């Protein structure tokens, strides 16, 4: 099974590389344009998808201007199923949309493997109503095979301006072991990490092509000075 784990992981990343180039480039262009025009790039997700926010934000080699919508209720730090309840709760996304002051010209990237729950759907709807562009990272196969839990009966991929497919399967887990009924090896985390890095690098490229400097965090575990990141946090981090 050791080799099978790597084969499955490589296959998903390869499929993303071969099928999602246009969507990833569109996303990167939206983010770059927002930064150049002094608008904000937000990122959010709930449950395990909240890790997309952490992959974008505060990482050495990552874009310094990302603003995560990352409340404790969306993560798994307090209770493993708390975020599962919250993401099904209608109205929570609208509260965060107002608190974070999402505006026309902003870009809101939302990660949700199923794209069916109230939080990602309503955050996308609220952002669109504000005039922001919405990007989804989702499993098209999973989302297509399930019904929406949102009041509107829409799914995230129905609302987003750009949809990046993480190329996962229904249920996310892709590996079946002999003698076990339950599938293992969810691929969304692997896929999402590669997608985030591709988007980040291309966004920086487009920003530099426009004659601007792309602000990127440096590693404090290498030879960098803390003051570099401190200045970036002062300039770009959320103030609310």
UniProtKB/TrEMBL annotation:
Coiled-coil boundaries: none
Recorded superkingdom: Bacteria
GO molecular function, one term: carbohydrate derivative binding
Gene3D superfamilies in alphabetical order: Glucose-6-phosphate isomerase like protein, domain 1
Signal peptide: none
CDD domains according to UniProt: SIS_RpiR
Pfam family, one: SIS_2
Annotated ranges, domain SIS: 31-212
InterPro entries in alphabetical order: RpiR-like_SIS, SIS_dom, SIS_dom_sf, SIS_GmhA/DiaA_subfam
Any Gene Ontology biological process: carbohydrate derivative metabolic process
Cross-referenced PANTHER family: PHOSPHOHEPTOSE ISOMERASE, SEDOHEPTULOSE 7-PHOSPHATE ISOMERASE / DNAA INITIATOR-ASSOCIATING FACTOR FOR REPLICATION INITIATION
UniProt-recorded name of the protein: DUF2529 family protein
Organism: Amedibacillus dolichus
């Amino acid at each position: 099974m050791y080799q099978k784990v790597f084969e499955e992981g490589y296959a998903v990343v390869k499929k993303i590389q071969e099928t999602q180039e246009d969507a990833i480039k569109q996303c990167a262009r939206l983010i770059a344009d927002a930064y150049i025009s002094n608008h904000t790039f937000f990122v959010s997700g709930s449950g395990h998808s909240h890790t997309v926010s952490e992959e974008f934000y505060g990482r050495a080699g990552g874009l310094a201007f990302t603003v995560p919508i990352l409340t404790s209720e969306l993560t798994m730090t307090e209770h493993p199923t708390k975020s599962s309840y919250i993401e099904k709760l209608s109205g929570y996304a609208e509260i965060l949309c107002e608190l974070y002051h999402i505006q026309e010209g902003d870009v809101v990237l939302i990660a949700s493997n199923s794209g069916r729950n109230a939080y990602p759907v309503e955050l996308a709807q609220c952002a669109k109503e504000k005039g922001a562009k919405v990007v989804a990272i989702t499993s098209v196969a999973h989302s297509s095979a399930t019904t929406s839990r949102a009041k509107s009966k829409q799914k995230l991929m129905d609302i987003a301006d750009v949809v990046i497919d993480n190329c996962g399967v229904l249920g996310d887990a892709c590996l079946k072991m002999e003698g076990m009924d339950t599938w293992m090896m969810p691929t969304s985390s692997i896929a999402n990490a590669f997608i985030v890095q591709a988007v980040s690098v291309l966004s920086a490229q487009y920003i530099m092509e426009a004659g601007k400097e792309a602000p990127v965090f440096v590693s404090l575990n290498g030879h960098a000075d803390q003051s570099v990141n401190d200045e970036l946090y002062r300039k770009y981090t959320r103030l609310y």
